[in-house]
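Protein in question filed below.

…
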Amino acid sequence: MKSNYSNEQIERVISLVDEGLSITKASIIMCNENGLPYSDSVRRHFSNVINTQTETKTDTVQYSQEVSMSAQKKDGSIMSIDEYCQAYGIPFEQARTYKLVTHTGTPYYNIASNVLEQESYVSEQELKDLIKEGLESVKLTSKTNANASNYVGVVKLADLHLGAYVDNLIRTKNFSIDILANKLFDAANEVNKRDYSVVHIHILGDLIESFTGLSHKNTWKGLDKAMVGAEAVKLVVKILHDNFLSRINNLCEVKVVAGNHDRVTSDNKEDVQGGAANLVCWGLELIGYKIEFNPLVITHYVDGICHILTHGHHPISKKSTKQLCWDYGMQGVYNLICEGHLHSIIQKLNVNQRDSYQTIKDDAVDHRRINCPSFFTGNFFSESLGYTSESGFIITENNGKGVPNVFYYAI
């Protein structure tokens, strides 16, 4: 593996890890000693270097002492691999490959373990330490408007996809971190124009494009400036704070549900609870915001209306609107179900259905179900499917009769 660091710097990090330090702390120490800037990409680089060296060592006979680790039982039969690992204290779940060797006289299992490979995963506490360090200078100063009206506004954002980079497509507008920051700034100004006495914020998932850079095949091709890992979390916290939340007059609460992009693993089966979005909320709480996070669904009763929030990718979104109202809503009041995920206010329909689409999935005297517009403009994949959409967000307010007025904003 080609490295931009000297052999002495690499050996320094390895020696610190051998002493028991995490790769993160070892990388920070090395950077401080050499006057080098530290970022999460440095940690990932040394993680890959160490894992590459580990693979070279563990691909051979890691557990293969013929005499001391015999696979032969007292009755002469051969142990199974499970029995062998249990007998010698080898974690079977960390065994990458194994082979029974019998031609040496004493049978044994040759096992290559990936136990050291798993060291590349930074712990939750290490992530929080990195995020906290990056947010130490960020302070919350609330903005108030004493001349505001008596109305309460509920602002709904969906699919920010911080870190996504889109450029030079035919019908899809460009998208980048800077563009997202400007859109959030414009959205805050639009909210303030309505002079609400109280403002609540609902964020419907997909705050980041990718924590690992591998959320989907070729995700890395559409990433802006390697914004992955703790760097992505810190940046989305700062942008939400600087360009949006801190600018809104009379801000009260922020509610966040996780999206399918908000996981901290490349495999969507390993993190199903939106760990990255949870870390973003943790960072916003550090600054001083009143935050509620849930990976699945949030019910929020505001000014006589029950808001049901979910991203839209979970199986619960396949339930009927009435069932969602029954499971998560409130009886006797108006229930408004809001979802994101589709990057459009158009339901996911076939071609014929899209020709006569409606922006509302379901509507009745006591409930409504809508798809919220996306901040993300789309990418090559969505354009190849024929989908394009305008960035936007929604503001809702009680019309005075317990029914929501819904205002769509293009930005």
